């Protein structure tokens, strides 16, 4: 049985997941070709480079949106996980990539124009309109649904009323669909994940401080019965997208299963931590050690 183990000792985010998959051996061309099938998604650059964290080499993936190039968001070590504009114009810029100070843009503007926002149904239409394999489409929608339901629960709204800001939706679609593309390439039979290291502390919002894990992340962990812990590292280590990816992929949780490793990959985050800021993936096969009758 071909097994994928997700070792989330430093948490998980969308870009770390893509980096780990590419480092594991999924071809960059397969990811780029898959993104090209998303005909309605544009205005971004996919950057792939090598990175070293605490002496360990891995792969760093950045999806840089055109608007971000203008504002130099990368200077802050942001992942740009997803910027959601909800019913009340409540725009959370979940810029999580382990930056020392996460600034949430919480703009309460009741006259906010949602003309450029999209809801879950619109995101699903974008995915369905692509030329991607049906298995990739189904997994992408499954993961995105976890995010939308969590946001709906946090804000006390029906899931149909959760709106994703156009820019944030593009970023999340690429992280999530990219994950599904890479997973499909590997032809995995079983996924096991470690408990998630969430980090602790608070992130800054214009209207106050928000605790880590942020509410949407915690909702996903609760709804999907995902085990998690903190060792006191004062960073946001698990993003809502990262939690949703685990919810969509993992069949079970626990220590690394017995297997013979075939490939190992490390997906690097942006910031340097006291531990390697990486997501580790291991693919292997469990070998029969005794005669089965």
Arrangement of strands in the largest sheet: 14-9-1-16-15
Give me the strand/helix succession. Answer: EHHEEHEEEEHHEHEEEEHEHEEE
What share of the residues lie within helices?
Answer: 25-40%
Q: Tell the overall outline.
A: globular
Mean of all residue-level pLDDT scores? 84
Features:
single chain; 293 residues; alpha/beta; five-stranded mixed sheet; three-stranded mixed sheet; 33% helix; globular
Descriptive notes:
- The protein is α/β, with parallel strands linked by helices.
- Helices cover 33% and strands 26% of the residues.
- It is built from eight helices and 16 strands.
- It has helices at residues 14-24, 28-36, 66-71, 120-128, 134-155, 166-186, 215-223, 240-249; strands at residues 2-7, 44-53, 56-65, 82-85, 91-94, 103-104, 118-119, 163-164, 190-193, 196-197, 202-205, 208-211, 228-229, 252-253, 260-268, 278-285.
- A five-stranded mixed sheet has the order 14-9-1-16-15. The protein has a three-stranded mixed sheet with strand order 6-11-12, with no helix packed on it.
- Helix 2 packs across helix 6 and helix 5 (134-155) crosses helix 7.
- The radius of gyration is 18 Å and the shape is globular.
- The relative contact order is 0.26.
């Amino acid at each position: 049985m071909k097994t994928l183990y997700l070792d989330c000792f430093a948490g998980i985010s969308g870009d770390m997941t893509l980096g780990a998959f590419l480092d594991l051996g999924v071809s960059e061309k397969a990811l780029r070709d898959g993104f090209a099938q998303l005909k309605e998604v544009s205005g971004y650059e996919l950057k792939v480079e090598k990175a070293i964290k605490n002496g360990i080499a891995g792969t760093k993936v950045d999806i840089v949106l055109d608007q971000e190039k203008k504002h130099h968001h990368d200077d802050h070590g942001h992942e740009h996980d997803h910027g959601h504009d909800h019913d009340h114009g409540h725009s959370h810029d979940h810029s999580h990539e382990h930056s020392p100070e996460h600034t949430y843009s919480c703009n309460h503007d009741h006259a906010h124009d949602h003309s450029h926002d999209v809801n879950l149904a619109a995101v699903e239409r974008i995915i369905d309109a692509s030329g991607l394999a049906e298995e990739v489409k189904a997994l992408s929608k499954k993961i995105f649904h976890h995010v939308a339901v969590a946001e709906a629960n946090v804000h006390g709204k029906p899931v149909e009323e959760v709106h994703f800001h156009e820019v944030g939706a593009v970023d999340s679609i690429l992280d999530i669909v990219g994950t599904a593309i890479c997973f499909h390439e590997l032809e995995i039979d079983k996924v096991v994940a470690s408990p998630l290291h969430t980090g602790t502390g608070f992130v800054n919002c214009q209207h106050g401080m928000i605790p880590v894990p942020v509410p949407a992340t915690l909702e996903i962990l609760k709804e999907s019965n995902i085990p998690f812990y903190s060792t006191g590292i004062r960073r946001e280590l698990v993003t809502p997208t990262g939690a949703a990816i685990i919810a969509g992929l993992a069949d079970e949780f626990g220590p690394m299963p017995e297997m013979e490793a075939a490939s190992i990959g490390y997906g690097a985050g942006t910031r340097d931590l006291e531990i390697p800021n990486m997501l580790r993936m291991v693919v292997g096969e469990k070998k029969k050690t005794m005669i089965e009758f």
